[in-house]
Predict the structure of Histidinol-phosphate aminotransferase.
Amino acid sequence: MGSWEDNVRKVVPYVPGEQPNQPDMIKLNTNENPYPPAPGVQKALSAMDAGQMRLYPDPASADLVHALADHYQVSPSQIFVGVGSDDVISMAFLTFFHGKKPVLFPDITYSFYEVWADVYRIPYRTIPLDDQFRICPEDYTLENGGIIFPNPNAPTGAAMNPEGVEQIIRQNPDSVVIVDEAYVDFGTASALPLLKKYDNLLVVQTFSKSRSMAGMRIGFAIGNEKLIRFMQDVKYSVNSYTMNRPSIFLGKAALQDDIYFRNTTRKIIETREWAKDELRKRGFHFADSKANFLFASHETVSAVKIFEGLRKRHIYVRYFNRPRIDNYLRITIGTKEQMQALFDALDEILR
Amino acid sequence: MGSWEDNVRKVVPYVPGEQPNQPDMIKLNTNENPYPPAPGVQKALSAMDAGQMRLYPDPASADLVHALADHYQVSPSQIFVGVGSDDVISMAFLTFFHGKKPVLFPDITYSFYEVWADVYRIPYRTIPLDDQFRICPEDYTLENGGIIFPNPNAPTGAAMNPEGVEQIIRQNPDSVVIVDEAYVDFGTASALPLLKKYDNLLVVQTFSKSRSMAGMRIGFAIGNEKLIRFMQDVKYSVNSYTMNRPSIFLGKAALQDDIYFRNTTRKIIETREWAKDELRKRGFHFADSKANFLFASHETVSAVKIFEGLRKRHIYVRYFNRPRIDNYLRITIGTKEQMQALFDALDEILR
């Protein structure tokens, strides 16, 4: 064996969450939407012609970008699309976090921020949430080379108010501030209106949660034109054709049906609020989630025990073995029926 | 405006080749396959259920990986899949070319190698092709941190014999050697059999050309398990879910119909050989291409003039304004009818 290994970029391998695949399972572990995509998506899928697949997709994904621009009332030149919001944020890290000062993000947050910083050798510093798992805007005044946080935060589900978000952006005019709004459609105010006031803001959203399209891998960022152009330049230097034809075509179709979108997100919000009551009754406490999941801890029974008990009953939730949160479970909001099955199982486990 | 721009990774923006979209055009500019994907792909597409799109795809793309493993008679752990071979090679650059010594590749080759090296800040050195546009294995003995070349080469189409490829790999046991076989199915011997002898070899192929699926973005690499594991570790630190559900499902379907695959590649090879005669008759010369394109220069009329003349007639070929090749046109092999239309147009332009 030669010494080619010396030149290898070695990273601590990130292990994606398990994707169990059992016919009778209740899958509440990866924040998927329990409802199918809008009916127009099936129609679009059925209309697709495999013959077109021989041709490259449009590298600019113009059809999808224009549909997003119409929907969010911004210019197409303010939109960047990618293979899920992971691709979009990874590209933003590579583009905007290229300085020597540390990038700031919360200590309890989306675990990929740390992973991207490691793989791209970006210095970073985590800022602890307060005792109630809240992001405190006044903590984000340290010298930094960029800031990213989700709103609502993951895996806590806690949302910051618009004033708090604006404070962080205003305090840091020399940094790009990325607000990761993967879960924003379940009841949090978006930072999008702030784009008119701040040129250092990048808002990232996804089709994976509220639009029921995790399987299609579609994410997007909205920011000022200059910011987006810098991202495009890097993206076109990595892979010009990231969005395949089905993504562009079905993504556009998913945006057309706003009534369906409002109905399904409303149903998930209602189920979430009901689930909060049901969990409270059973001795759980949690931050006031505005996402499509709850991050809950039981007053007497350990998270691991509950996790294992649910798993035995083919109900999958997410457990993170990490400091400060190792007694919590992240429970995706499913249908009412799925949640009832969860509560029934909890009644057995907690008995 | 703040100074956030100081932290931006600024790259020379890569401009992807034009993707014209006119109903009557003849598109011979991006090496797409003139034939549709195998009939099984349309069947698979019609069988897809949009309801499944709400669920994340399998991060390991196991169905596609196993189909590839069966097809190429290797272990699934020897296979890496990505969003087109661009994604695969970009990930290989990030993973394997992490040293301080320059990476080597030909001066006339796939233009993205230079772009990836720039975006990832990888030192590199280009090695000139000889006067007949050939890669000379003995030139690849300089100290290096990795090697990549396409076989057949692009945009020349010239293939290296298996001994030459093996010589480069054997000479460089301390470097990862990537053989980019995007066009290998049109009549070149693959380096895959060498995997049994060398642990520093990575072979990259794509569904975009010979499998008529440019629009789906599916590429893959085959190498020894250790090499693949290093790539997976980096990939899982960038984006765990790169392959969407249609890619995995339709990619697998495309591999099932070997007879269709052989028939369409054979037809393209036949058309290419006929096109060589027709171009020679008209005063063109070119390297002996083994790809689905010809790289041709006319004895008296400039490439730019021919390019513009064809364009006016809605026939698109590719022109590269780069040293040593600025009097050449890269012409994709279309159907016999498309090529006849090209020759008719050339007869008018050269008259």
